[in-house]
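User: My advisor, Dr. K., asked me to get a structural model of this assembly before our group meeting. I'm new to this, so sorry if the format is off. These are the inputs:
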Amino acid sequence: MIERSPFFNFVTYLAMAIGAFLVVIPFWITLVAGSQSLQEVSRVPINLWPSSHLWENLQVAWARADLGPKMINSFIVAIGVTVGKIVLASLSAFAIVFFNFRGRMISFWAIFITLMLPLEVRIVPTYAIAANALLPFQAILDVTGISWAVNALSGVQVSLNWNLLNSYTGLILPLVATATGTFLYRQFFMTIPDELVEASKMDGAKPLEFFVDVLIPLSRTNMLALATIMFVSSWNQYLWPLLVTTDRANFGTVVMQLKALIPAQNGTPDWNVTMAGALIIMLPPLLVVAFMQRWFVRGLISRDK
Amino acid sequence: MERTAYYRNSVLPWLLLAPQLLLVLVFFYWPTSQALYWAFTLEQPWGGGNAWVGLQNFLNIFRDNAYWATVLRSGLYALVTTGLSMSVALILASFVDRSLKGTKFFQSVYVWPYAIAAPAAGVAFRFIFAPESGLVGSLNEIWPGLWNPAINGGQALLMVMVCHAWLGIGYNFIFFLAALQMIPRSINEAGAMDGARPLRRIFDLQLPLIAPTAFFLLIMNIISSFTDSFGLIDTMTEGGPYGQTEVMVYKIYFDGFKTLDYSGAAAQSIVLMFIVIGLTFIQFKWVERRVHYH
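Assistant: The format is fine. Below is the predicted structure of the whole assembly, which you can bring to the meeting.
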């Protein structure tokens, strides 16, 4: 605030209040509808004040969408992807920034360019890969004639097969490669002064010791920032789990279950249960964003600097 | 800053990079090359692999009016969601940037939508806009049959776009606020000394200075409208009614997995890929022109 202007201050508060209203109203409606009985939620116009049925609705939604096991799956996937991304991103960035080797820039660009290939534009072929993750290697063997040679020499038909459908590996692995994470770590590592590297070399530390003893502790803030955005985005994944799990009962995630909670066209319009379910599913990433906001904002902003 | 202290080792860096490079190869480059392969070939109905058909798949989709309808719809979708979400976020960020007492509370609330999965927001907004429910559906009490996105394509699209714009508010807000806060106080104060009122300063000082961020966000929002719309449309309308909310990404999914037309879906993927690559390129070009205050 630079000058005193009571009128403009009033306008500011008014605008911020309207903004907060716009942002909060969907959450509020979800909460309110989730706390009402079937009768209350079907009232036109609806009463926008919470009622007393929240707990039973949560229970019904929990049971109907089988949210117990799905929650566990979601946590496994979100944490697996987050940890995987951080490990891979930091290792790759370490190699790219602190080693002088041929292929340094090519490796960086090979990772970075994947930014331009979001999952949505390669869904159909990625699905084929998920059915057999070794397909590219099979193709290489076929094209180079190695499989033919092996077949001719030993009579063994080379057919590499690794099915990722309906497995945690399949849910996690394809999401672990991270251009943004690698970029973020690279940006951070580039700010590490040369003197630190020299000093560590002088102490006789091996590269990996330098990585573990110096870089990891220094990058703790970055790691936290990255972890929060990665957790939120992997929890919220929808398209990939949808494709890779045909066995929903065992490998479905909570976000996939939202659709199952929507009332059927001609069924009971029990939106109260739907909204209670949505509430449960929204909560974990919302808590992360609300309580880790400082880290989260930093992670989001710094990845584009 | 160019680094001078390096480790020298020709094996270790490759070992460190190997896991990520393998994943990138298997899950990004290979599928992309497969998409290209499928886009230029056609599976033989009697089996025996794919036959090269050149540009035939592309000609097929470009001759299809239904495809052009989805392209136009995606364009409209990008325009409306981006415009709506960015303007709301910018207005909120400008006011929050005045840092009046209590602003911190509003600031943290505005970030919330970013945390929400598109399908979760989709379900919530579907209820808000449901014709039989007592929110927007109350309109039907006053004027029966006025609101029904289940049969009115325009209303269905509007509903999806509003939800998409809402979801984007948090992300846009964070970036706008960060950009505004990076403007040195002295610039604003100098403007105030010269007698520029707050609104004038917003339009003549702050907006031009955050133009690069706005451009970055513009591109990110457009890309997101092309890719992230899937979860919303799948939970809100499934492309309906009568395909009137089908955007490009949904059509790829539908043609690929429901009608099993791999070649057609692959050709559409390539088109979408070119759009995304083009947009990203423009953004990279622009990044160098960022404003820095040092």
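One thing worth pointing out at the meeting: Residues 67-98 of chain A form the longest helix (32 residues).

User: Perfect, thanks a lot.
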